[in-house]
Amino acid sequence: SSASYYERYHSLEDIYYWINKTAQEHPDMVKVILIGSSYEKRPLYVLKLSGRQERAEKRAIWIDCGIHAREWISPAFCLWFVQYSLNFYNLNNDITEMLNSMDIYVLPVMNPDGYKYTWTTNRMWRKNRSLSKESNCVGTDLNRNFDANWCTKGASNRPCDEIYCGQFPESEPEAEAVANFLRSHKDSVKLYLSIHSYGQMLLFPYSCSNEEVPNHAELFELVQEAAMKIRRHYRNNYKYGASAKTIYLAPGGSDDWAYNLGIHYSFTFELEDRGRYGFLLPPSFISKACNEALLALKSIALRVIQKT
Ligand SMILES: NCCCCC[C@@H](C[SeH])C(=O)O
Ligand SMILES: [Zn+2]
Ligand SMILES: [Zn+2]
Fold first, then answer.
1. Are residues 105 and 61 in contact, defined by beta-carbon separation less than 8 angstroms?
2. What's the rounded Cα separation, in Å, for the pair 130 and 128?
3. Where would you tag: which of 56, 194, 223, 269 has the fewest CB atoms within 10 A of its CB?
4. What's the complex ipTM?
5. Burial class (CB in 10 A: 0-12, 13-18, 19+), 16
6. Which residues are near ligand 1 (CB < 6 Å)?
7. Closest residue CA from atom 12 of ligand 1
């Protein structure tokens, strides 16, 4: 049988079409919010998912996908998660509780210029596509461009490097758009999730230093429990812990910045695999990778709902 729409990778144009079609098909649960535009003036659309139960000052979850262009499983997860949530609302208790308790803001492609570039020119592109005044090299690593120990060890100030931090914090329109949205929603957003690949890891701040965040033990418990569930249900191993110790030093990251803004449940997921295919994860792996990520997301989100 032909794999479903959600078990294939989709071009940027396809995803824009999907965003508008999904909102049109679910006017009672989905709103499209334009939060800004990319360097090449492509729209940054956020889908706001809400349960049908109206509630005053609802809390919210933020999920961004596609900050790094070559990590195609990430936007695939955002699309897959949205359709899963809409299809299982009022059918699956966890999804129903989540959507009745929290609005969910989903940014399927945070780096549309880079994503497009991986479809047309260079499949292994990571950064955005902004031009530099001082160099012929293109692009800033959006996950080094946030204002959290910006451009210290673990980032580079050279435009040709893959981890180039940009001219200044939020110099990139994509990072600025996300930071602006979160600043204006910081009282309602209780959980921040940034979806990446590859490596199979559930990470939390800080990655900009080896310092532990005040609620380190609580965040460690949340990712440990999530990793245990993935191991039990899918027999797959995910590493978990504070980013600096578990992966590497990476200052200027969106999760560290969101944490410092006051969103004290902040995580970065590295989805499948562990390197056999890496960024070139075959479409046949999409379903399993997304189910594993969903299990971790639900585990953490339901605990955050209890706690906040
Ligand atoms: N705040 C950064 C969390 C740890 C590093 C995540 C990876 C994802 Se590709 C990176 O941005 O290098
Ligand atoms: Zn990444
Ligand atoms: Zn990665």
1. yes
2. 6
3. 56
4. 0.98
5. middle
6. 68, 143, 196, 203, 207, 243, 247, 250, 253, 255-256, 268
7. 250
